């Protein structure tokens, strides 16, 4: 055996050490399939993309299926060169989207369904995967029939499962209020669609406020959202300014889960009830006149120029 190793230094233990490409493609394939499964069982993340970025539902389902197909091909080593290039392009897109979500201060990238991951962390993961894909190269472009069959079967099984899950937990809009959408146990809020309609959250605000008369500026915010925290002092200043000038009333409404930094009661603060699970992109400003929504915007227009 020593003589064999000495005369064939590159052949010692030939079946024990995986290639660099194998060490890269297998975990990346598993990551893609796991991500697709998590998104398929978390339809509210898809609805967020649909509402926030005008991505049609069929495109989201198609993207999940493509993610599974690429993951299965990487996992089994089918079509080596093609899958490597496809994976590089995919994670480049992922990195760009994570960077965008991080810059706007989003709480989660939305890549892993119910599991909330800070976009900065997913951006780092995407960069690491891209680096690994650039380092790991297939030893051959030869296609292996067995690997191809396994990839196709894996895609058929996992892709079919994800499609079935997407149908079973599809968003239900059978709510007492058509402006609120029940999705897999959560209530999706799309304030942009409320313009010209009665404000649908009045009955869920605690303590209750008389929003049916007069003009109001309502801010929906999360306690752990950096952009929300930056906006709160400006809305407090706007409330004081408007109180002196008889301008619109200002109300800051915290979305569960609640933080511990807010002293209650406070005339300018309230909370959405925690008897429901709410899903909304925040912070978002909603203006009301006599109980009807006149505008809803993520750009927070009331403080863009009024408060420095």
Question: What attributes characterize this protein structure?
Answer:
2 domains; transmembrane; six-stranded mixed β-sheet; Glutaredoxin; transmembrane helix; Methylamine_util_MauE; three-stranded mixed β-sheet; 308 residues; elongated; membrane; Methylamine utilisation protein MauE domain-containing protein; single chain; 46% helix; 13% strand
Topology:
Elements: H1 2-7, H2 20-40, H3 43-53, H4 57-76, H5 80-103, H6 119-135, H7 145-168, E1 181-183, E2 186-188, E3 205-206, E4 215-221, H8 226-245, E5 249-254, E6 269-272, E7 278-279, E8 284-289, E9 292-297
Parallel strand pairs: 2-7, 4-5, 5-6
Antiparallel strand pairs: 1-2, 3-6, 4-8, 8-9
Helix pairs in contact: 2-4, 2-6, 2-7, 4-7, 5-6
Largest sheet: 6 strands, mixed
Q: Globular, elongated, flat, extended or rod-shaped: what is the shape?
A: elongated
* Total of DSSP H or I helical runs spanning 4+ residues: 8
Structural class: alpha/beta
**Count of the separate structural domains:** 2
- What is the terminal-to-terminal distance? 78 Å
Mean pLDDT: 82
Low-confidence stretches: 1-17
Percentage of β-strand residues: 5-15%
List SSEs in N-to-C order. Answer: HHHHHHHEEEEHEEEEE
Radius of gyration: 25 Å
Total number of strands: 9
The helix content, as a percent range, equals 40-55%
Strand order of the largest sheet: 3-6-5-4-8-9
């Amino acid at each position: 055996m020593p003589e064999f190793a000495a005369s064939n230094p590159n052949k010692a233990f030939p079946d024990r050490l995986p290639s660099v490409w194998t060490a890269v493609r297998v975990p990346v394939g598993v990551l893609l399939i796991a991500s697709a499964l998590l998104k398929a069982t978390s339809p509210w993340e898809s609805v967020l993309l649909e509402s926030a970025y005008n991505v049609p539902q069929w495109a989201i389902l198609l993207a999940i299926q493509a993610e599974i197909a690429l993951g299965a091909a990487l996992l089994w080593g089918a079509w080596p060169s093609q899958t490597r290039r496809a994976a590089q392009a995919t994670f480049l897109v992922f990195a760009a989207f994570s960077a965008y979500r991080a810059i706007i201060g989003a709480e989660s990238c939305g890549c892993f369904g119910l599991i909330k991951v800070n976009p900065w962390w997913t951006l780092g993961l995407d960069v690491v995967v891209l680096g690994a894909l650039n380092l790991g190269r297939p030893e051959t472009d030869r296609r292996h029939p067995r690997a191809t069959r396994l990839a196709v079967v894996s895609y058929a099984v996992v892709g079919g499962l994800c499609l079935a899950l997407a149908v079973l937990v599809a968003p239900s809009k059978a709510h007492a209020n058509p402006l609120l959408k029940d999705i897999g146990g959560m209530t999706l809020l799309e304030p942009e669609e409320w313009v010209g309609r009665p404000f649908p959250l009045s009955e869920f605000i605690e303590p209750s406020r008389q929003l049916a008369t007069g003009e109001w500026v309502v801010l929906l915010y999360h306690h752990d959202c950096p952009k929300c925290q930056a906006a709160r002092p400006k809305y407090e200043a706007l409330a004081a300014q408007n109180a002196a000038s008889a301008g619109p009333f200002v109300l800051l409404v915290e979305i569960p889960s609640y933080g511990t930094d807010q002293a209650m009661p406070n005339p300018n603060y309230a909370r959405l009830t925690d008897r429901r699970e709410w899903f909304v992109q925040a912070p978002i400003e909603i203006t009301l006149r006599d109980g009807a929504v006149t505008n809803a915007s993520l750009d927070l227009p009331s403080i863009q120029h009024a408060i420095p």
